[in-house]
Amino acid sequence: MTSPAPLVSAAALDLERFMGLWYKVAKVEEPQDALRTRERYEFLQRYDGGVRVIATSYDPLSNRWDRRQDYMAPVDAKGAALSSHYQLPMPVHFSISRFGPFGVSYYVVALDPNYQWAMVSGPSPKSFSILSRRSELEPGMRAPLEQLATRQNLLKAPLQWAVPDQDAAPR
């Protein structure tokens, strides 16, 4: 039996192909995110080249769904907004506007060439997640994705894998 070929990441992100629904299938737990489950993100292209993000998650302690909307725009290494590019070189740096003029960094650091999974990171070394187009990864994908993240020095703590979601999120 041969081992699967090593995973490769796309060299560029096609913003239009990246749009749509993504499920958070693994994450490095940060204290403020520990209770969130069944997390999903819908990325919607805006007329100005930015992206509207609708984040939905479930809080089992309060038995309720939380939903928030953010705006993110591709930026260069210094944080200056990029013009409306559809092909952005990897890794891609976005600034998420949550607090008025202040932005939070968000990086797409690895991406499946077929846009079936993505590795994303926030501003802290422990904010790392794996997103998937499906709520459950194909069998055998966990180990290769963890190996890719380790090879690229992205993992600063153990990954917590999400339980597959059987229920639909509220609309």
Automatic annotation (TrEMBL):
Residues 13-161 form the Lipocalin/cytosolic fatty-acid binding domain. It comes from the Bacteria. InterPro entries: Calycin, Lipocln_cytosolic_FA-bd_dom. This is Lipocalin family protein.
